[in-house]
Each structure stands twice: as structure tokens, then as C-alpha cells.
Amino acid sequence: MRKLLGVLAAGFLAMGIAGQAQAVNLGFTGGLAVQIATLAPVVIPGAGTAVVNGSGGAGHLTGLQVPGGAFTLTGFALAVTDPAVFPIAGIAVDATNGAGSFAGSGGAGFGGQMPINGIAKVCLYAACGSTYNISNLSVPLNVVGVGGAVSVMGAVNLTVVGAPWTTGTVAIGTITAMGGVSPLSNTGAPSGSVSLVTPIFISTNIGAFAVVPAFGFFNLHFVPEPGTLVLLGSGIAGLVAFGRSRARK
Q: How many domains does the chain have?
């Protein structure tokens, strides 16, 4: 009996220490993506450690701080072959996320700001990197996920209007996109996830594409810290070993 109590105590202690470690920071994996009209999405995978619920531990997700630089993309180039958008022939992207700060009540009421720092180069008349590519437009991305507008003038005029991130539903005209959280009861814990979305309004002086609908998607999945896994593993291993010793008697 004493041996059982000792093993149980060790297991609970391990889980208790693990819970304290998770209360401040949670590791995450995820992806940051931008979908422009019907083009293939630009996806940036990433991972890092976030402060969840202001170090308050698990429960409904009420606060989230994401470090800058967790999602970085360099040298990405996407060919655009639709003749309807000529002279746009390609898009090249160098981008990274800025620090993100989100808060709310969970569900559809959670959101905040996180800029995408970098440049999207719109390549005109020929694919990005081609010797026939004679004109480019460099569009700053930092209004995406924050708010505000930026305009670039050239052979094609572009205006990009950004907005904060949300777990709710956003729309550009009749086209909508939706975020969300899972599970609803314990999002701010390992195995919880949150999906945020932001509308990106792009206008051009190309007649058929006067308004180009685009959306940003930000998905995080919380994972245990390595130290937490070791502690939990130690507690579980102790319980398994005790069970085996009882079975042999």
C-alpha cells in the first residue's frame, strides 16, 4: 500500500509540476497562410512558444501572446498564368510575422493584431525572376492583420486594406471566411487549437479585377513543452511499473 501511495504521489507531483510549467508558456505549431482570389495559397509553417491566458493556465482562451519571427518565408515565388489579370505574371514574397497580441472571450469573440512584416513583389509582364520581367510593384504587407491601407502606383495601381484577426466570420463582398477554437471548453491547454482569419481587401485598376478578395489564415495547435512530456512520462512509467509488479505477485 505504501508503495502504491508513493508511486501515485510521484505521478501527481509530476503532473502538478507540469501544470505549473504550462501555466506560463505553451509550445505551438501551426501555419500562417494568405489566399488571394483563386490562386494557390502562400503557406508559412512555424513553431514557437506562446504566453497563454497571461500565465493563468488552461481553460477558455482569454489571452494569447505570439512572438515575432515564428513564421518566416523567404524567396517564395508564385507564377500567375491567368490572362485575365495581365500584366500581372507572378508574385514573390519575403515575409515574417510580427509579435501578435490577442484577447477575448473565446469562441467567435477572440481576436487581435499581428502584422505580417515584409514585401509582396507583384511581377509585371513576365514571371518573377525572368529576364523579360521589366517592372515590379513592391507592396508592404504590414497592414495585413492590423488595419490601415497602403497604395502602390505603377503600371498597375494597387491598394491593400488590412484588418485585425478574429475567430469569427469576415467577409469581402459576398465571400466569407471563418475562424474558430477547439475544444470550446479548454482551448488554452495542450491539444487545444485556435484558428484566426483576417480579410485583405485588394483593389486594382484592372477592370475585371477592380476588387480582388483575399484572406489571411492563422492556425495554432498547442503542444506540451518537452520538460512537461518528460515529467508526465515519468509519472505514467511509475504507474505502469507498479502495475506490472502487482501482476507478477
A: 1
Is there a contact between 136 and 104 (Cβ–Cβ < 8 Å)? Answer: no
> Which 8-state DSSP code applies to residue 164?
B
Domain containing residue 84 = 23-224
Alpha helices in 52-124 (DSSP H): none
Q: Which of 167, 163, 146, 191 is nearest to 62 (CA)?
A: 167
Residue 68 has pLDDT above 90, yes or no: yes
Nearest CA among 146, 152, 159, 150 for reference residue 199: 146
Q: Nine-digit cell at 119?
A: 514585401
Give, in degrees to the nearest 5, the angle at Cα 24 between 192 and 227.
80
Indicate whether 1 belongs to any domain: no
pTM to 2 decimals?
0.77
> Residue 106 domain-assigned?
yes
In a domain? residue 28: yes
Please indicate, yes or no, if residue 162 is contained in any of the structural domains. Answer: yes
Of 104, 152, 97, nearest to 124 by C-alpha is 152
